[in-house]
Amino acid sequence: MNDDVLVKNQELAGITHWSFSSASQPNAKWVFNYVHRTPEDRRSDVVGEAAYLGTAVHNTAQNILAHGQDFDSAIADGIKLYKQENQAQYACEEIVKQEKYCEVIPEMVRHLVDLLEQHGFTACEEEVKIACNLPDVHLDIIGFVDLVGDGIFTEIKTRAPVKTRTLKDGSQGWGKGRLPKDEPEKAHVMQAALYAYALKMTPSITYVSPEEAKIFTPFNCESLKRNNLKNALEDFRQRILLKQNLLRLSSDAKTLASITDPDWSHNFIWNIEPNLLKEAKALWQI
Fold first, then answer.
1. For residue 113, what are the CA distances in angstroms to 23, 57, 135, 209?
2. Is residue 65 part of a domain?
């Protein structure tokens, strides 16, 4: 089939561009999320409280580093944002988790801001839009980079505290949000590779938990060195090309589901709301 068919099927499926999130998803999950479901459907998704915590920490640190907001007022705004985001979609079912996450926002932001200031992120820009093309990819790839400094950018990844067993005194136990030890996570390297290609800047990935923050750059890890970034970018491109090939066959989600393996045993991929999981399984009923 030729590219005219691809263009037509992309339009019919409502695929107007690629993002890191859409292109990096397993093919079956992408069929469900981006062909079967609409952008309005995806915007209505309920996300976990750890994601709300990440948003609050991101925004607070960005307000301090990119806009010069003072620490105390930025923290107050960040906690307010966390509570509003959390309660906008549903009443928090785990109040103990909400309370803990509010408690750790200041220390996470402090670790993050201190580390990034040490690496030159003082007069920086937030949420910088990128748009680029890759060979044989027929649509633009669009994304937003967390923080862009002088010749370097960073993507921020948060690690929330983890609930453990109830302690003898009846209080909730908590485990640390673990950071990568020597190398960043593979998916995050792929994202950094894409943004480095688009921005022509030095990449970095910053992880933060309530206990510490850690930054990976090409100077302290192998994954972000030029050749490994090149390989990661090619991996990302191949993922898009596979999805393009699916769209060359059809724009119909049911048809595409019939030729992709959903792999229901993969709990991480399908860790979604029960009603959405039911909807996805109905799509794969052949």
1. 31, 10, 37, 12
2. yes
CB atoms within 10 A of CB 93: 8
CATH number at residue 151: 3.90.320
Is-contact 200 207, C-beta < 8 A? no
Residue with tokens 């996805």, as numbered in its chain = 280
pLDDT of the residue at 91:
47
At 12, list the tokens.
């019919």
| Residues of the chain under the 70 pLDDT cut | 1-2, 86-93, 286
Structural domain boundaries, residue 22: 1-168+181-273
Asked if residue 24 belongs to a domain, the reply is yes
pLDDT tens digits, one per residue of 35-89: 999 999 998 877 778 888 999 999 999 999 999 999 999 999 999 988 887 665 5
CA–CA separation, 189 vs 57, rounded Å?
Answer: 21
Rounded to 5 degrees, what are φ and ψ at 156? -100, 130
**Number of separate domains in the chain:** 1
End-to-end CA distance of the chain: 25
Burial 214-232 (b: 16+ CB within 10 A, else e): bbbbbeebebbeeebbeeb
Q: What are phi and psi of 128, to 5 degrees?
A: -80, 125
C-alpha to C-alpha distance for 131 and 34, rounded to whole angstroms:
19
Token pair 């950018």 in the structure block, residue: 153
Question: CB 199: neighbour CB atoms within 10 A?
Answer: 17
pLDDT at 49: 82
